Amino acid sequence: MQVTTVTTAPIEGQKPGTSGLRKKTRTFMEPHFLENFVQSIWNGIGGVEGRTLVLGGDGRYFNERAAQVILRMAAASGAAKVIVGQNAILSTPAASNMIRKRGAFGGIIMSASHNPGGIDEDFGVKYNTANGGPAPEGVTGKIFEATKTITEYRIVEAADVDLSTVGETTLAGMEIEVVDPVADYAELMESLFDFDAIRALFAGGFTMRFDAMHAVTGPYATEILVNRLGAPAETVMNAVPSPDFGGGHPDPNPIWAKPLVDLVMSQDGPDFAAASDGDGDRNMILGKGIYITPSDSLAVLAANAHHAPAYADGLKGVARSMPTSGALDRVAAARGLDCYETPTGWKFFGNLLDDGRATLCGEESAGTGADHVREKDGLWAVLLWLNVLAGSGKSVQALMAAHWAEYGRNYYSRHDYEGVDAEAAAGLMDHVRGQFATLPGTVIEGLTVESADEFAYDDPVDGSRSEGQGLRIGFAGGSRIVIRLSGTGTVGATIRVYLELVETDPAAMDRDPQEALAAVIAAAETIAQIRARTGRDAPDVIT
Ligand code: VG1
Ligand code: CO
Q1: What DSSP character marks residue 130?
Q2: Does 113 qualify as catalytic in the annotation?
Q3: DSSP code per residue over 451-480
Q4: Which of 213, 220, 182 is nearest to 276 (CA)?
Q5: How many of the other CB atoms lie within 10 Å of CB of 185?
Q6: Which ligand does the CA of 217 lie closest to?
Q7: Fewest CB atoms less than 10 Å from the CB: which of 172, 424, 437, 470?
Q8: Does residue 10 have its Cβ closer than 6 Å to ligand 1?
Q9: What domains can be seen in the chain, in order of their start residue?
Q10: Measured from the CB, is residue 346 less than 6 Å from ligand 1?
Q11: What is the mean pLDDT of residues 277-289?
């Protein structure tokens, strides 16, 4: 087999976003596009010669083709070994676990996560480092620089590697180990939670539905919930992964997982329900008659994690992304835990986890995780909920009601305006920034502005600074508006407006969030002129 050096030139727009490089699948399929980016990863990380990598993806359209290219490029650049999931499948948390468990130098995850899949939808490539976590900004910056100066890439000419069978093979002198994508992850979960208690819960008639949304978690959920925990087979819905996720968005929120939400709200709905996203790192939690916002879920898990053996001795600290509600902070304050506030994106939790400053982390976008891997972990969150329900003996509604009674409630919602004209979105951001000096002290929609600024983060572990991480307007009493532009979209700009109101009156704990937030929503419109600047009457997605 022969290594070919192909002459190429930089391709515009290969800057990794919140979570890797995401583009239209057809863009990734254009000549040199994938190859340029993969070679730029190798160049940005100092080469892969003699190194071991992990490779897997969420199974979306182009997943296996891309895997074959990446394997041939790893071999051409002298990698010693690639550990790859069978059929090029690995959920994001399973890939993180595999990198850590095998002491790999890093790994490539092929996924556009919650974005839809298919030839006319989205594809993505993400690089993770030796700790199992998404490459930090210092590394993605080097990769991006490499995309701007690339002149050639190396690839071996070879027939496709058989990825359908577990076992070992070689490619141009590089070892390839095809592994069961589920086994190691299931074993890890079993080491963290009280499986006997959860098994007893199911044996006692507790009912659950898990919606895998035709995405990667189907096989993982079936193995863990059905085979190991004894839940009935019908517990896992949409369990067979498909390249276009059954034509839907594999995004576990009340819009895209509406059938599941309708089910739990119905008379004979299950006691508990959950869904995960394309690559298995997100979770949505529901109980009979109730939707739990991800921010509340994070807070409840932090308050009750002691039910699980892994967290029985307490938490080292907790962390949340800046737009995530302050519900977690209330638990941390009551328990005397350090609580960190990071920019959006899991890569910012890595140092806190590595340094032993935080055990539990979460984002408002349905991401929750802990120090067992360095990615958010959808099924882990579901299992922790199950362990808490088994340990407390409470229903989801009762647990939530008790939590709000003890800590107060942070009413919370996110309004997304998708596919907005990029200039209009930038103009909106500038318009808000332009009011920072004059807003404090003014009263808008009955709310007194206390602060207005743009979030920047100083990493307490490595001292790095990340600027431009979201516009914040704080009101007296703790209410808040955050506005930022998405870094995962592939068309135009997506404006995310995060809305929060703190309620401590025990009599006001079960209001409709949109009604409770009405003044905050109106203030966001007044300050940001969202309708006029986007030409939209209403958000595309409300979570
Ligand atoms: C979104 C979420 C963010 C999350 C990221 C990756 O980013 O807001 O919290 O970490 O997606 O999640 P953005 O920049 O579009 O707001 V995943 O599960 O799509 O990899
Ligand atoms: Co995801």
Answers
A1: T
A2: yes
A3: EEEE--EE-TTT--EE----EEEEETTS-E
A4: 213
A5: 27
A6: 2
A7: 437
A8: no
A9: 2-179 (3.40.120.10), 185-407 (3.40.120.10), 409-542 (3.30.310.50)
A10: yes
A11: 97
Summarised one tens digit per residue, pLDDT across range 518-532 is: 999 999 999 999 999
For the record, the structure tokens of 127 come out as 């690089």
> Does the C-beta of 114 come closer than 6 Å to ligand 1?
yes
336's tokens: 């005397």
In whole angstroms, what is the distance from residue 449 CA to residue 348 CA? Answer: 29
E-strand stretches of 271-343: 272-275, 284-287, 290-292, 318-321, 339-342
pLDDT of residue 2: 87
Q: Which residues contact 445 (CB under 8 A, 6 or more apart)?
A: 519, 520, 522, 523, 526
Ligand number nearest CA of 215 is 2
CA distance 135 to 120: 27
Average pLDDT over residues 321-334: 97
Q: What phi, psi does 353 have (nearest 5°)? A: -70, -45
Residue 414, Cβ density class (10 Å: 0-12 exposed, 13-18 middle, ≥19 buried): buried
Residue-level length of the chain: 543
Could you tell me what percentage of the chain is helix, strand and coil, using 3-state DSSP and rounding each to the nearest 5?
35, 25, 40
Cβ neighbours for 62, distance < 8 A, ≥ 6 positions apart? 25, 28, 29, 110, 119, 123
Interval between CA 350 and ligand 2 midpoint (Å): 16
Mean pLDDT along residues 408-433: 96
Q: Is the pLDDT of residue 491 over 90?
A: no
C-alpha triplet 189, 190, 193: angle, nearest 5°: 80
Active-site option among 77, 91, 96, 113? 113
